[in-house]
From TrEMBL:
<protein>
    <submittedName>
        <fullName>Response regulator transcription factor</fullName>
    </submittedName>
</protein>
<feature type="modified residue" description="4-aspartylphosphate">
    <location>
        <position position="57"/>
    </location>
</feature>
<dbReference type="InterPro" id="IPR011006">
    <property type="entry name" value="CheY-like_superfamily"/>
</dbReference>
<dbReference type="InterPro" id="IPR036388">
    <property type="entry name" value="WH-like_DNA-bd_sf"/>
</dbReference>
<dbReference type="Pfam" id="PF00486">
    <property type="entry name" value="Trans_reg_C"/>
</dbReference>
<dbReference type="InterPro" id="IPR001867">
    <property type="entry name" value="OmpR/PhoB-type_DNA-bd"/>
</dbReference>
<dbReference type="InterPro" id="IPR039420">
    <property type="entry name" value="WalR-like"/>
</dbReference>
<dbReference type="InterPro" id="IPR001789">
    <property type="entry name" value="Sig_transdc_resp-reg_receiver"/>
</dbReference>
<keyword id="KW-0597">Phosphoprotein</keyword>
<keyword id="KW-0902">Two-component regulatory system</keyword>
<keyword id="KW-0805">Transcription regulation</keyword>
<keyword id="KW-0804">Transcription</keyword>
<feature type="domain" description="OmpR/PhoB-type">
    <location>
        <begin position="130"/>
        <end position="227"/>
    </location>
</feature>
<feature type="domain" description="Response regulatory">
    <location>
        <begin position="8"/>
        <end position="122"/>
    </location>
</feature>
<dbReference type="Pfam" id="PF00072">
    <property type="entry name" value="Response_reg"/>
</dbReference>
<keyword id="KW-0238">DNA-binding</keyword>
<dbReference type="InterPro" id="IPR016032">
    <property type="entry name" value="Sig_transdc_resp-reg_C-effctor"/>
</dbReference>
Length: 228
């Protein structure tokens, strides 16, 4: 049995080929999936299906993704939300996040990246759902707030733990300083982006990553974890 068995995902998109593609892929990964062709149907289905995670297209008939996520948050249900948008507009992303979305992806996107973001969201929002997770040389146990690297328990501050967990769970994805600040420190953090550099330097020291082969810097873009 896969660790994903029993985890429910709601898909809402008015493009049938996208729904079919995602539904097939997610079911192959072991998720339980329900889909809706518009926002109104998605909201009704969410109340009945009780998903752990909803993947919502922004532009849908009947009710758009913004209204769906707003209505979902009003119910008080603990549902992770990833929004899909065909437009790389900052205003749309900010609006969705402010209404309660947890993440967003720009179409077209790689399915493997969507899987990584789903895992990260589930790990952050439902830490007891999957138990511990292993990525390459890392073993992350969110219940114990413990990260083991190459069979050694790391000595980490709470912020170092959250930062390392976030970048490892999103391995292979380029993460900007702004994204890291938002997800690790929170949207209300009033400090400078340079704090990310300080913590990344500390993590590299503790990981013995002197040549930056594990946590790579992409100048002017951000950081990416490359697992060995």
């Amino acid at each position: 049995m896969k660790l994903t068995n029993g985890i429910k995902i709601l898909l809402a998109d008015d493009e049938p080929h996208i729904v079919q593609f995602l539904e097939l892929g997610l079911k192959n990964e072991g998720y339980e999936v329900c889909s809706a062709p518009d926002g109104s149907a998605a909201l009704d289905l969410a109340l009945e299906f009780r998903p752990h995670l909803a993947i919502l297209d922004v532009m849908m008939p009947e009710m758009d993704g913004f209204e769906v996520v707003e209505r979902l948050r009003e119910t008080g249900e603990n549902i992770g939300v990833i929004m899909l948008t065909a437009k790389d507009e900052v205003e749309d992303r900010v609006r969705g996040l402010r209404l309660g979305a947890d993440d967003y992806m720009i179409k077209p996107f790689a399915f493997d990246e969507l899987l990584a973001r789903i895992q990260a969201r589930l790990r952050n929002q439902f830490p007891d759902l999957l138990g511990e997770v292993v990525h390459g040389p890392f073993r992350i146990d969110d219940r114990r707030k413990e990260i083991v690297y190459r069979n050694q328990v790391m000595e980490l501050s709470p912020t170092e733990y959250e930062l390392l967990k976030f970048i490892v769970l999103n391995h292979g994805i380029v993460l900007s300083k702004a994204t890291i600040l938002d997800r690790v420190w929170g949207y209300d953090f009033g400090g400078e982006e340079n704090i990310v550099e300080v913590y990344i330097r500390s993590l590299r020291d503790k990981l013995g990553d002197k040549e930056h082969k594990l946590i790579r810097t992409l100048r002017g873009v951000g950081y990416r974890v490359d697992l060995q």
